[in-house]
Task: structure prediction
Amino acid sequence: MPAVSKGDGMRGLAVFISDIRNCKSKEAEIKRINKELANIRSKFKGDKALDGYSKKKYVCKLLFIFLLGHDIDFGHMEAVNLLSSNKYTEKQIGYLFISVLVNSNSELIRLINNAIKNDLASRNPTFMCLALHCIANVGSREMGEAFAADIPRILVAGDSMDSVKQSAALCLLRLYKASPDLVPMGEWTARVVHLLNDQHMGVVTAAVSLITCLCKKNPDDFKTCISLAVSRLSRVGTPSSSLGRQELGHGHHPSWFARWAGHSARCVPFVSPEDAAVKGRLVECLETVLNKAQEPPKSKKVQHSNAKNAILFETISLIIHYDSEPNLLVRACNQLGQFLQHRETNLRYLALESMCTLASSEFSHEAVKTHIDTVINALKTERDVSVRQRAADLLYAMCDRSNAKQIVSEMLRYLETADYAIREEIVLKVAILAEKYAVDYSWYVDTILNLIRIAGDYVSEEVWYRVLQIVTNRDDVQGYAAKTVFEVRAPLEGVSGRGQWSLALLTPTPVHSPPVQFSLLHSKFHLCSVATRALLLSTYIKFINLFPETKATIQAVLRAGSQLRNADVELQQRAVEYLTLSSVASTDVLATVLEEMPPFPERESSILAKLKRKKGPGAGSALDDGRRDPSSNDINGGVEPTPSTVSTPSPSADLLGLRAAPPPAAPPASAGAGNLLVDVFDGPAAQPSLGPTPEEAFLSELEPPAPESPMALLADPAPAADPGPEDIGPPIPEADELLNKFVCKNNGVLFENQLLQIGVKSEFRQNLGRMYLFYGNKTSVQFQNFSPTVVHPGDLQTHILSGPLAVQTKRVAAQVDGGAQVQQVLNIECLRDFLTPPLLSVRFRYGGAPQAFTLKLPVTINKFFQPTEMAAQDFFQRWKQLSLPQQEAQKIFKANHPMDAEVTKAKLLGFGSALLDNVDPNPENFVGAGIIQTKALQVGCLLRLEPNAQAQMYRLTLRTSKEPVSRHLCELLAQQF
Amino acid sequence: MVNKQGQTRLSKYYEHVDINKRTLLETEVIKSCLSRSNEQCSFIEYKDFKLIYRQYAALFIVVGVNDTENEMAIYEFIHNFVEVLDEYFSRVVSLMIMFNLDKVHIILDEMVLNGCIVETNRARILAPLLILDKMSES
Result:
């Protein structure tokens, strides 16, 4: 090996580099560079034509300067000139410069393309390689267009050298990834597959990369490659490692094998189960590798063991990917287990990571669990934080009902000493595990409280909300939770304080006498943050309702100067409002307004969503990848404190508006007490919402989704600025509820929030309907870009006309003035029967902030009912005709409303059917008949409703000539009673 | 390839990154590598990538890969690369890498193409380079 001299011929470059190195300061360095740049510029600009050597030298210098982090804005032309040189070194530097510095959309591309074309045609393998490298490195669309047709030809040409084939394959891969449409599929694909049998390893690995990518798009074209790949793999792996070791002996690196296995791994989905022989060979091959990994190391050199381990890990990931061979999975797990105590940190890290994926496979979950002690030990003693994090991940993955208690308690213990970087994640994980595998709720409450005690500052709001949701939903734990909170309250401060008050807010507890409770609460009042104090005030007013004996004390507190004249507007307002409320309102009003919170509807844990968010795309382990659900983040949209979209009005203006007449448009009577509570917090509807402060968001999070909740709008998962007209967000959570109100009636208020009220008036005849929508602007500010649109779900792209309903809408004015109302007419034609109502998407800009929400339009199939009168005889005859089991739908359900015959009658008539008297022998029962009119067909429909006053139950039976209609009508109607 | 002072000695991208963002990226990457101690493992999760690094005297070699790559293989590849450099320069020092930037690039191009490791045999990697050297000598 010849000793290489400094700079090797390019003296100028060497001098320049030493100069830079000798620079004492940054300034001197920049000065030297500027001098050199000026020099090069003048040389390039000069009249004297430069020879290839000096061009090369200067371009090299530019490269070096670029490397030091300076922008290079000239010299491209000279580099392109170098491309056409005949000397390899000059050409090489030219290509180097271009691949490092030229970005995809440079205007020089055409010149470069020309040079590349010449080189590709040159038949000189080294030049061809350089050109191919350059195409691969730049990979722009223009290059793709110019060369996509040529490269496959080069790739499969019989006379191409190995190195050229290899470059061509990888170059094609790059072009295919950048712009798949440019690469023509053709007969060459079949010949690419045969490259797998090539003698040259480089060609094979390159071909594997290419084929793997092509496979994804055209699995059918490449079916043949699988058996070839597997047999090649077994040839490499099995013959008692002769080939493998031989290659190692040559200083050959085994990474190609690892790649190889990895690529086959990605081919595996295409292995169909009937290829038993192929599968058998693959399994056998994997076993051999595992066996080999067990052998004692042949050489002491660390590289060899590293190489071996690389193969092992790749094999294991292939096994995991394959995920159908329990034996292999368990073996893999055991071998990884040995690595868990290996003295090399790298191996421990990788072992933990692979185990994490193993834990998610049903076959190896149990095997992974046997290593629990080692993992816990790793969590405690490991010196490297990233390894500890992996250990925590693994614990999370292997957790199930049997070991949840142990794992959670270990994680809690670890939390006390954990690094700050991973604390929050661990907190989330503990919270999720505790919830998911909680056997009894007292354990859950204890765990969470412990969690808060240990890592108070790291417990995010989401965890709190979730705990509160759970506690609220479970009556049996409320008492226990409240008691525990009161007992341990001494060490709890800060964040935990907030939760404590909220618990008290929700839970009337028999533990202490009310005055004691109150004084306990109030003793820490002055230490709390504003947000907590606001909650605390709400708690007090609830106390007044629940325990009248505390009224005097609390009123005194509220009246105190520190509250009534508090500098914080929010606190002041609350104090004033509550004080007046408590003294003015009668007990009945208080009880309604401050009614206990109803349970929450079940939904996905907000903590889980947060953990997923935290992991971020691509960063998560494979485990999370598997479970990630792209839409899940939206579900809990309401949890995130949404930036305020409403300006805060002057606080004093409407303070007394609280006791003004009910809001101009009275909410529908069925709205629950929870809505009233929100109204109390926000002032009446006439007044625009206060800027939603965090605790406001918190409160509305605690509320059940209610039509009037001010946060309903903000919680809508469409906060994105001005979404295009095409994408319609999912309906707001309460859309179904709203829809139900309109099953039996045609007119009313469909939706109302702080900004907007939507009223509906509709009439239907046969299969036609007309609906008037009234949009009322409740604010004093003009709405901009107001655009309500009707869409049929599932048909977002195509036009409405192709759906089961034809809906004609008239456009409304884009501006709605403050306090004004605009009307929109919808003409509806029912073409065939349908189950899902159309969606009404309303979007507009209010004070610059885009607002958008989606409702369900109150058009249900029963609107197209035509009542039919018939005699008892006819009825029974038809009833019998519809006797197929699928034509009948029956539901037995508990009454949600008082069972009043008159109301029921009205509802059934509103539903659309005719009521037939004297048909049913039992006069208590209701019998109805009607025909659903659609353009395509008519659906005859008979119904029978049997109330049972004693049991407070109904039995509803529907028979129609069309099966889905029966079920749908049955469900619709059942919700009405 | 970065030295302990955080100066980049060689960088190569296989996916297009804006030129002005590169410096920033490199600084962040080397910062996260420098902040680790010897007993920590050689893999760092950085944004969507995994960084794999090895330290040779004052020189860090950092490779960023996506999560489908085999960490151990890359880890060994770094060593392989250094071995090749060592063989070619007969006892490589960071100075030589600086002065022979073009050669190092050639070597890297022989080993890695378009982000894929294509050649690991030392003799085969160096063959074209040695021919070149011979040509320039004669």
